[in-house]
Amino acid sequence: MAAHGTPEGFDEWLAARGYVLPLGAPSAAILRQRATDYIDGLYGPRLIGDPTVVPLLTALANATYAAALYEAQNPGGLSVAASQSGAIKREKVDVLEVEYVAGSGDAVADATVRLSAVEGYLAPYLRLEGVAGLGLWAVG
Question: CB of 14 within 8 A of CB of 21?
Fold first, then answer.
């Protein structure tokens, strides 16, 4: 799938917020594609509305730009690899003791990066998790 947004839009989004891509970051096209893959994989199944309508297209573009900037600043940060094997809840060595908060039981979900800017842009177009849809019911 083609990346959300446009090269010009990404440049304008960065400039309007005073951001510059770090030296050595992948090209803007690669960053936008990685961000698109992240958004489509994480939020795609929950998106509601016509993806060809301007408000949703704009939200997807802005969310992509925010995720692309994150990827530029944190190379590989949008991709997760997780394993529950070897997870430590409590460890004690001599007098030092460390306890880790247990996750949800879903290692991939626990490791998946959630970006507040991305969720903010997409919030009006996301179906709540676990909710198939809303309905109006007449009784009587």
Answer: yes
60 near 4, Cβ under 8 Å?
Answer: yes
Q: How many Cβ atoms sit within 10 Å of the Cβ of residue 25? A: 16
Closest CA to 112 of 67, 55, 64, 52: 67
Q: Is 109 helix (H, G, I), strand (E, B) or coil?
A: helix
What's the pTM?
A: 0.76
User: How many CB atoms neighbour CB 63 within 10 A?
Assistant: 26
Q: How far apart are CA 57 and CA 60, in angstroms?
A: 5
16-62 residue pLDDT tens? 999 999 999 999 999 999 999 999 999 999 999 998 899 999 999 99
Condensed to tens digits (0 to 9), the pLDDT of residues 95-135 reads: 676 665 555 555 556 667 899 999 999 999 999 865 555 55
Q: How many CB atoms lie within 10 A of CB 32?
A: 25
